[in-house]
Specification:
alpha/beta; about 300 residues; TIM Barrel; 12 helices; eight-stranded parallel beta barrel; about 50% helix; single chain
């Protein structure tokens, strides 16, 4: 109840107030901020994926501005020898405006990354874009671009069939729980059933030689993953843990200390306010998670 209330009223507060809460989870407004944060992670033997904040754009002009900034991210990763790749939000580069327009923008970015010897990832947004995003992935692979990964969400009931449909590609997949507020007809809602599906998808992917990005802050799932990786004696070049910037830093450092590859999601951009308020409105449960993280209670 309190989380819902905070999420609803937060957008009307001054940006300076919201930034007090948001700054821990966002590198900053500029690309240099993302570079700085990534270099700090590299000193800990960590990696990053850099995300230009912005999504659900409604004009081609705005989409092309996002594409241009993504090109700058690719150049920055290469020029600064960053252990990083570019995360692409499909709707930020026009997929929600027109499929072909969005696809050509994404293809240009993935092609440029391949020229530079870099990887990319298509982020997964809410359910209206799931099929389109997976179609983009398959089309990129058909066009010979294999330096791209995708995301699947454990709370979506369809994800098991999506995993099976991707087996032929031996893909690089980030497996997360999911954040958007989806209808119960298409998404699991209970904590245990989401965890159970995460575990099922985890094993299904590893059984079929996926490269797995284990994206979670849930201690139960982290311990499950560590145990499964140990049982399988899986080589460290077959998986990585992934976390959000500013969430469970101590656990992140512990995973790194234990020798796991770990990547942190590093968002930046002038749209930090919109990003923060959209996330909270979409999923009010994040409020309690953030508060716990701030006060060190989310162990």
């Amino acid at each position: 109840m309190l989380s819902d209330l905070i999420a609803k009223v937060l957008p009307v507060f001054p940006k300076s107030f919201v930034y007090v809460f948001a700054k821990k989870y966002i590198a900053g407004p500029t690309l240099n901020d993302a570079i700085r944060v990534t270099q700090g992670l590299m000193k800990l033997n960590g990696m990053s994926t850099i995300d230009v904040l912005g999504e659900f754009v409604t004009t081609k002009e705005a989409a092309l501005e996002e594409v241009n900034m993504c090109f700058q991210v690719l150049d920055a990763i290469k020029n600064n020898n960053l252990k990083s790749y570019l995360s692409i939000k499909p709707t930020s580069v026009g997929l929600g405006i027109n499929f072909d327009f969005g696809y050509e923008n994404i293809k240009a970015l993935v092609s440029k990354a391949k020229e530079l010897g870099l990887r990319t990832r298509l982020d997964m947004e809410n359910s209206p874009y799931t099929d389109m995003t997976l179609d983009v992935y398959r089309k990129l692979r058909a066009d010979g671009l294999d330096n791209v990964g995708v995301v699947l969400q454990a709370y979506m009931r369809r994800s098991e069939s999506d995993v099976k449909s991707l087996i032929e590609y031996k893909p690089n997949v980030r497996l997360c729980k999911g954040i958007y507020n989806e209808a119960p007809e298409i998404a699991y809602k209970g904590k245990d059933e989401i965890r159970d599906n995460y575990k099922k998808l985890f094993n299904l992917m590893l059984d079929n030689d996926f490269y797995l990005g284990i994206a979670t802050h849930d201690e139960i799932l982290i311990q499950f993953a560590e145990n499964e990786l140990k049982k399988r004696k899986l080589q460290k070049d077959k998986y990585e843990f992934q976390m959000l910037l500013g969430v469970r830093d101590e656990r992140r450092n512990e995973l790194l200390k234990n020798g796991h590859n770990l990547r942190v999601y590093v968002p930046f951009g002038e749209d930090w306010f919109g990003y923060s308020t959209r996330r909270l409105k979409e999923n009010p449960q994040m409020v309690s998670h953030i508060v716990k993280s701030i006060f060190g209670l989310n162990k």
